[in-house]
Design brief:
2 domains, 12 helices, Rossmann fold, alpha/beta, six-stranded parallel sheet, Quinone Oxidoreductase, Chain A, domain 1, 396 residues
Length: 396
């Protein structure tokens, strides 16, 4: 079968690989009908999220049809159409039972303290082969699959696999209450869903900070007050627009690349060859850039834009070796800081009902549909932030 395979930093390929097989009685094999490219995938290819194992299939967003089931999977049937939550959980440990599926005690083979397991990630997360493939093995399938209603399309569902739950999770972490003012830093796909979720939670005002015109325009269409950080200082602007007070809540929907001097302000020029995807980051001296070398720009702006005693939610991805944070400024303003990886399985049932009812149309975020055979070009356009490339759905 065809799959997108990580070979090295800057080198991913569309390879022919062996089809997955049932390994445990709790497994399922899903024929993937739609997957997607996520900004998190770019962290791996750029090397800003280290530890990727050569040969790992990329991708953590998937929708498909069940082709095979282990004998202990009792709540699904072959032929069921399902969405696959991005993070992997056992469903029976104390963390899963409390809804912290991203902190499952059992699924990560690196041990209980290793943290979140998800598809297509670094060795520290498993690794588990990802979903940018024609078929995928889903472990503990009784928990890690969710059956889709007929009214929910593949395009709806691929947004439910990761980015809609993550944006909603960020809004929940930010403790948004009716009437609150909210600033969302980063208007990529997750940021767009954070804006939408803030609206669902009846936020009074939502400010959207980015520098790409198409992303800011999409945020404006959602009713957000947009701020182009290339044209004005976002902290000063937010304070000015809030009577000098700042916002009640802020969401960092950017992550590690907000720290990166190259990617934070310029379009990447890294895709020089189809099989040498993204070059490692370099600073002006030509040395490899290391995560954690400076506090994230998004975090600094968010902390500066918050009102005293406000709440910052961090849902952008940061690697374990990132040790920088502007703690002094946050502490001296009595800020609450909440962060983490999304517990996708917790939110998918709730958000599926919202989609099914017509309360929200998540497909507006999808800007391109591409066959998996065109995936390398799609990665190139997405990484270089070509105009109009907001979210890429891959069909197989």
């Amino acid at each position: 079968m065809k799959a997108v395979v990580f070979h090295a930093v800057g080198d991913i390929r569309l390879d022919d690989v062996r089809e997955p097989e049932i390994q445990h009685a709790t497994d399922a094999i899903v024929r993937i009908t739609t997957s997607a490219i996520c900004g998190t995938d770019l962290h791996f290819i750029r090397g800003t999220m280290p530890g990727m194992k050569q040969g790992t299939i990329l991708g953590h967003e998937g929708v498909g049809v069940i082709e095979a089931l282990g004998e202990d999977v009792r709540n699904f049937s072959i032929g069921d159409r399902v969405v696959i939550p991005s993070t992997i959980a056992c469903g029976h440990c104390s963390y899963c039972r409390a809804g912290y599926y991203a902190q499952c005690d059992n699924m990560n083979p690196n041990g209980k303290q290793a943290g979140t397991s998800f598809y297509g990630g670094p060795e520290l997360t498993g690794p588990f082969d990802g979903l940018q493939a024609e078929k995928a093995r889903v472990p503990m399938a009784a928990v890690n699959l969710f059956k889709l209603p007929d009214e929910v399309t593949d395009d709806d569902a691929i947004m439910l696999s990761d980015i809609f739950p993550t944006g909603y999770f960020g809004a929940e972490l930010a403790d948004i209450k009716p009437g609150h003012s909210v600033a969302v830093f980063g208007c990529g796909p997750v940021g767009q869903f954070a804006i939408a979720s803030a609206k669902l939670m009846d936020a009074g005002r939502v400010f959207a900070v980015d520098n790409l015109p198409d992303r800011l325009e999409m945020a404006r269409k959602q009713g957000a007050e947009v701020i182009d950080f290339n044209q004005e200082d976002p902290v000063e602007t937010i304070r000015q627009l809030t009577g000098g007070i700042g916002v009640d809540c802020a969401i960092d929907a950017v992550g590690v690349d907000a720290e990166c001097p190259h990617h934070a302000h310029e379009n990447s020029e890294a895709f020089e060859q189809e099989k040498e995807m993204v070059a490692p980051e370099q600073n002006p001296k030509g040395e490899l850039w290391q995560p954690g070398s400076a506090p994230s720009q998004a975090q600094r702006w968010a902390i500066g834009a918050l009102a005293k005693a406000g709440t910052l939610a961090i849902i952008g991805v940061y690697p374990p070796n990132d040790m920088s944070f502007p703690i002094g400024q946050a502490m001296n303003r009595n800020l609450t800081i909440r962060m983490g990886n999304c517990n996708h399985r917790k939110y998918i049932p709730i958000l599926t009902k919202l989609v099914q009812s017509g309360a929200i149309d998540p497909t507006k975020i999808i800007s391109q549909h591409e066959p998996i055979t065109a995936v390398l070009d799609a990665y190139k356009a997405f990484d270089t932030r070509q105009p109009g490339w907001m979210k890429v759905a891959l069909t197989t």
